[in-house]
């Protein structure tokens, strides 16, 4: 497989591509792009689907994504005014790259949480039952959340 020609050097501190990496490394960006990859959505629909996301952060993230050319904002002249967000063609190219990362995260969350528990135990936590219980509860909650997000996105 031939790689596309690269512009810039992401390892150089002055490389502008770091701005893009900073944007896409944000968890809210990943979740918003994943939801919008299925269909255009309104602000409140995005807010309902992404637990823990505040109105302020959603608004800021959508503005940044629009500025970067990843999301398009469409205002409809209705009463009240309705606004819909959709991925641009550029946004779709990024969403296709993010989807495997989301799948990887959902597939390997148990291993990551187990590794954290083992690390914490080695660092002096002693592997207390409460640590193991907390990790198990986190895994269970994350699985439920992933199922809700997947169900909502379909």
Automatic annotation (TrEMBL):
Transcription in keyword set: yes
MF terms in GO: DNA binding
Gene3D superfamilies (UniProt xref): Winged helix-like DNA-binding domain superfamily/Winged helix DNA-binding domain
Annotated keywords: DNA-binding, Transcription, Transcription regulation
Transmembrane segments: none
Residues annotated as domain HTH hxlR-type: 15-113
Keyword Transcription among UniProt keywords: yes
Family annotation (InterPro entries): HTH_HxlR, WH-like_DNA-bd_sf, WH_DNA-bd_sf
PANTHER family attached to this UniProt entry: HTH-TYPE TRANSCRIPTIONAL REGULATOR YODB, TRANSCRIPTIONAL REGULATOR, MARR FAMILY
Name used for this protein in its record: Transcriptional regulator, PadR family
Species for this entry: Burkholderia mallei (strain NCTC 10229)
């Amino acid at each position: 497989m031939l790689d596309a020609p690269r512009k810039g050097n992401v390892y150089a501190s002055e490389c502008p591509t770091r701005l893009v990496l900073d944007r896409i490394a944000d968890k809210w960006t990943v979740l918003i792009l994943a939801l919008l990859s299925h269909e255009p959505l309104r602000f409140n629909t995005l807010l309902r689907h992404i637990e823990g996301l505040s109105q302020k952060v959603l608004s800021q993230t959508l503005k940044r994504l629009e500025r970067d050319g990843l999301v398009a904002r469409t205002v409809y002249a209705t009463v009240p005014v309705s606004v819909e967000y959709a991925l641009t063609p550029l946004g779709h190219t990024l969403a296709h790259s993010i989807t495997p990362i989301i799948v990887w995260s959902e597939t390997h969350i148990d291993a990551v949480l187990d590794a954290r528990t083992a690390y914490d135990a080695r660092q002096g936590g002693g592997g207390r039952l409460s640590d193991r219980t907390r990790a198990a509860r986190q895994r269970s909650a994350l699985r439920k959340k992933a199922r809700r997000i997947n169900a909502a996105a379909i």
